[in-house]
UniProtKB/TrEMBL annotation:
Residues 4-61 form the HTH lysR-type domain. Keywords: DNA-binding, Transcription, Transcription regulation. One of its GO terms (molecular function) is DNA-binding transcription factor activity. The keyword Iron does not apply. The lineage of its organism: Bacteria, Pseudomonadati, Pseudomonadota, Betaproteobacteria, Burkholderiales. This is LysR family transcriptional regulator. It comes from the Bacteria. The keyword rRNA-binding does not apply. It comes from Paraburkholderia bryophila.
Length: 298
């Protein structure tokens, strides 16, 4: 079946509003003969005369009268769709934003993001969702507004913006014996430790750095989140290794822990926000990205 010519819908609306071929032609900036030909096409399309001549007037048929309101609404909807988007009004914005991020981001920066969202867009909602192992697919499929993660390949079509950098530091309870002397690689490796891994791994970059020095450490506990690692270290003789902003947040919340530089070279972590291309020009999404970047000190 051949697709209908949607221009006929606009012409039909003009004919029904004006009640004459001449009036509709002037409204659409056409000649009267051109509008007469368009009316003929409309009649063929819907199988109805639409307008019939009674004396010197053209009057709509019952079918045309039944269609009038529907035709007007359809044209108005089409016009609204094709107009430029109005300026963003944050005060009335009613939208739920989904941010996929680990618990360390939500605890360290989520409060700042939420405060600004509540202040500027009080009818909007933030939903933090945990990161997972299919992050690139989640962004590519547009299932989340923002993915906040460490820098990694996410595909050529995904937009990314750098938020901040962080380093891995050691963390122990504030009276831990490791603070009684210089923290060397040997002393660092001599204490039992916590490994933080969503996948349950007991080894990682720290073990590689220790191995380069001929050292190994003992991992006595594996936990799925950095917050669990913080509390495990704060209530035991274990040492945890975690991002410096997590350590700062734990201390700011009154957890009795101290952080220290890990005495081996480790890579700096770059944290980014990433989003689907369809959000790139969305004013509300642009605002959300600025809010997140500002909360991170960007």
């Amino acid at each position: 079946m051949q697709s209908p010519d949607l221009n006929l819908l606009i012409a039909l609306d003009a004919l029904l509003e004006e009640g004459s071929v001449v009036g509709a032609a002037q409204r659409m900036h056409l000649s009267a003969p051109a509008m007469s030909r368009t009316l003929a096409r409309i009649r063929d399309a819907i199988g109805d005369p639409v307008l019939v001549k009674i004396g010197r007037r053209m009057v709509p048929t019952p079918r045309a009268l039944a269609l009038r309101d529907q035709v007007r609404a359809s044209v108005e909807n089409a016009v609204r769709l094709l107009r430029p988007e109005p300026d963003l009004d944050l005060a009335t914005l009613d939208r739920t934003f989904n941010l996929q991020a680990n618990d360390t981001f939500a605890s360290s920066f989520g409060g700042g993001v939420l405060d600004r969202v509540r202040r500027e867009a009080p009818h909007s909602v933030l939903r933090f969702e945990p990161g997972n192992d299919i992050e690139a697919h989640v962004v590519l499929e547009g299932k989340t507004d923002l993915l906040i993660t460490s820098m990694r390949p996410l595909g050529p079509d995904i937009h990314m913006q750098r938020l901040f950098t962080t380093t891995i530091v050691g963390l122990a309870r504030d009276d831990h014996p490791i603070f009684d002397g210089e923290i060397t690689p040997q002393r660092f490796a001599s204490y039992d430790q916590v490994s933080v891994s969503r996948r349950g791994r007991a080894t990682g970059p720290i073990d590689v750095a220790l191995a380069a020095l001929g050292l190994t450490r003992t991992v006595s506990l594996v936990v799925p989140s950095f917050h669990t690692g913080v509390f495990a270290a704060g209530s035991s003789d274990l040492i945890a290794a975690l991002p410096d902003h997590v350590a700062d947040t734990a201390k700011a919340l009154g957890v009795r822990v101290r952080s220290f530089p890990i005495p081996m070279p480790l890579e700096t972590i770059v944290v980014i926000q990433a989003w689907h291309p369809r959000f790139q020009s969305d004013p509300a999404h642009q605002w959300l990205r600025r809010v997140v970047r500002d909360a991170c000190g960007g």
